[in-house]
Amino acid sequence: MLEVKNLTFKVNENGVERSIVKDISFTVENGEMLVITGPNGGGKSTLAKVLMGIEKADAGQILLDGEDISEYDIDHRAKAGIGFAFQQPPRFKGMTVNKLLSLAAGETLPEHVCCKMLSGVGLCAKEYLNREIDGTLSGGEMKRLEIATVLAKSHKLCIFDEPEAGIDLWSFSMLVQQFERIHKKKDQMLMLISHQERIIRMADRIMVIEDGTIKKIGPREEVLPTLLTDGAGCACMEQEM
Ligand SMILES: Nc1ncnc2c1ncn2[C@@H]1O[C@H](COP(=O)(O)OP(=O)(O)OP(=O)(O)O)[C@@H](O)[C@H]1O
């Protein structure tokens, strides 16, 4: 279970302090899929970064299965069980796709396992397995590789920030299937930040973040209809792909 208590994150812009995440508290139950949505600039990605340890909270507490991880750095949080896409996968000479997947999994993966992972995110394994992670990969290919690295091993909590961004319809469908598969097993918590109706519809609970605060949180059946009718909700939700 993830418990987030009174989380606050501020930035200093030209000497003026601004709260981007304002005293946010919520929980994610074991096996639950929480989808976070809301208008652009509301603070969703920042919240994710604070949870991952990329940004340091100014106040508040984060507990993962009762363990206080608030002061942990990124590596320590990853070890504690938080999985998230590499924002910038390592791009040094010799880092191939299969090496990256093995790195993410924490063990040397046999080729057939890497192939399965790549197919799962819509990448044709044969073409990618030995390819170097460099500037020749397209944005959509990189995004899917990032997602494959998160899925490479089981975590207590997986965080995906707009997994739909920049990927084609076919790959998006494959991703949705991956999320459904993980969700069905109920052994990992999933936190997905998304504007996509198809992803929002998979949620057990939906949390709407606006202006750094939780505007709504509740079961899908309760919150989804309000997104469809609410002005702000409509603005933040993209049509089904
Ligand atoms: N380090 C920073 N310094 C200054 N402002 C920041 C910083 N990080 C985020 N912001 C601002 O905080 C606000 C929230 O940004 P964030 O990326 O978290 O929003 P979001 O809800 O994920 O938006 P979107 O739906 O567009 O992805 C924005 O106004 C952004 O410009």
From TrEMBL:
Gene3D superfamilies: P-loop containing nucleotide triphosphate hydrolases (3.40.50.300). Residues 2-236 form the ABC transporter domain. The keyword Nucleotide-binding applies. InterPro entries: AAA+_ATPase, ABC_transporter-like_ATP-bd, ABC_transporter-like_CS, Molybdenum_import_ModC, P-loop_NTPase. SMART domains: AAA (SM00382). It comes from the Bacteria. Keywords: ATP-binding, Nucleotide-binding. One of its GO terms (molecular function) is ATP binding. This is ABC transporter ATP-binding protein. The lineage of its organism: Bacteria, Bacillati, Bacillota, Clostridia, Lachnospirales.
